[in-house]
Amino acid sequence: MARPPLSYLRISVTSRCNLRCVHCQPACGDAGQEVLTKDEIVRFVRLAVECGIDKVRVTGGEPLIRADIVEMVRELAAIPGLKHLGLTTNGCLLPEKAAALREAGLRRINIGLSALAPAVYDRMTRSAHSSRAMAGLQAALDAGFEPVKVNVVVMRGVNDGELPALACLSRDARIEVRFIEYMPFGADLSARERHFMSAEEVLDRLGELGEIERLPETRGPASAARYRIRGYGGAIGIIAPHSEPFCGACNRVRLTADGKLRACLIDGGEQDVLPLIRAGLDRPAMARLLAEAAAAKPEVHSSVFCGDMRRIGG
């Protein structure tokens, strides 16, 4: 099967974050940075859309830390030809910003939520912001985002006991809870052996809530496999990059917080495009960059992520 053309761009607009999640970054270190300006990001996206990109997701770090995030979303949403604009956040700043983001044109929002129990959330995020995250989820619903997708990175021995409770959020028809196989950063094979839990195991654990039915595929083979617990209004998603890799169907490319274009989250290398952006990147150069990124995508990625997740974005 031929690989689909690139049509999905994920942009890490900052590597700063107000959490230090155990699956994303070390317990201590630099605070992160913002390299690309709002105008540079909007111009890059406009050129990318002219070259075939029609879906963009804004990520971080934590994108809502940026003071100009609402205006950035407004300008991105106004780009002709951009069909889908989403944003991924940990939710802690949504109580103040959800309504403004919706008014600015954002229609898709994903919230990273590791656990409902405060003690487990605190361990996963190295913070004490579980109440803020839950308030953020409610703010997204109140602002009219539907469905709100809740992303859960599953770690055996850390938050796997939370899976049924998190899945119960999907009783609400406006919420889709997506469970993501753990991908350790820094080539820590021992961490994967300790904490990895396969998609099959996740589904077995959720079976205690009731009969689970597979939903028809509507968004392509590189999307989450979707299920519904009988009697629930919302959906369950399973993202299994290890046990069920979807590399051959991947249509994504990533722009990192420091101006690198990555062909793949894990493999494929990266191109330093910051000098090109600041020298006046044009449409032919963008088309070449995207073609090179597409050619660099691996047939199947390696099993462990090496790098700084917060600068790349999930």
Task: Please tell me about this protein's structure.
This protein has 314 residues and is of the alpha/beta class. The chain has one domain: Alpha-Beta Barrel (TIM Barrel). It is built from eleven helices and twelve strands. The chain has helices spanning 38-50, 69-77, 94-104, 118-125, 130-143, 163-167, 189-195, 199-206, 274-280, 283-296, 309-312; strands at 8-12, 55-59, 84-89, 108-112, 148-154, 175-181, 212-214, 225-229, 235-239, 252-255, 260-262, 270-272. Helix 1 packs parallel to helix 2, helix 2 runs parallel beside helix 3 and helix 3 packs parallel to helix 5 (130-143). The longest helix is centred in the middle third of the chain and has 14 residues, at 130-143. The two termini are 26 Å apart.
How would you sum up this structure in a few lines?
The chain is of the alpha/beta class. It has one domain: TIM Barrel (Alpha-Beta Barrel), CATH 3.20.20.70. Helix content is 32%, strand content 18%.
